[in-house]
Amino acid sequence: MEKVKRNERIAIMTRILVGSPNQSMGLSGFCQRFDAAKSSISEDIAIIDDALKSQGIGRVLTTAGAAGGVHFRPCGQPKDNLDFLSELADALSDPQRVLPGGYIYLSDVLSDPAVMRRMGEIIACAWQDIPIDFVLTMETKGIPLAMMASHAMGLPLIIARRQSKVYEGSTVNISYVSGKGSIESMSLSRRAVHAGQRTLIVDDFTRDGGTAGGLISLMHEFGIEVAGLSFMLAQSCPPRKPIEGEKSLLVFAGDGVEQPVRIRPAEWLSLPLRKG
Length: 276
Hints:
Layout: H1 6-19, H2 27-34, H3 38-54, E1 59-63, E2 69-73, H4 78-92, H5 107-110, H6 113-126, E3 134-138, H7 143-153, E4 157-160, E5 171-177, E6 183-189, E7 198-206, H8 210-222, E8 225-235, E9 247-253, E10 262-265, H9 271-275
Parallel strand pairs: 3-4, 3-7, 7-8, 8-9
Antiparallel strand pairs: 1-2, 5-6, 9-10
Helix pairs in contact: 1-3, 6-7
């Protein structure tokens, strides 16, 4: 087999690491693949880390020990993240996006892979130091964002359904009060999760926190701790707030009728800039 040149090796390693965020990979695997010494692979990792860090793309981190390895953490620069979300907020503040009932048209954004990937990485970075076993969302509009967040975190995605499906086996079903005040239901397969785990709830939109509150209640039925909540868009001052400690990317004010809808990045995103 022809020996792989260093520049080719670095390109391939970068693709592998960036393509599997937060997935630990042993140096020995790279050594065998490229027939290279561990010292050479370590030097390559340092070059990749310096390049990604300098461009604000993320970091390649090394974990010591017998079970250690390297993994890519996709955390962009706080200012770049804020600029990205500010630009998106301006686009979403277009009055033509306001739908009857005060809702905001988001389908085009939720179906854009590039936007969802970037948002998923920002969410993953926000919760990177919190132990989490899986990402949880509710069907259906929250799935794209939750999928990208779980991918960036290197975690499985669990989806709660509005109605149980026969192919999921035995399920746990609960009723909850939606933001509109109506009684809704959600279900989750008993095989999907295990007691003692920790989850991050990710969804596209929250106004009164009804669905999020239902997901929290569902996790309590399984004996699972909710480590955090993140949303793409949340109301800045809801009339009632059954959830606390969430990290929404964008917040909005106004109903689109008496007051124009104004969307802006959430306050917590600017805190790293102020500290710096």
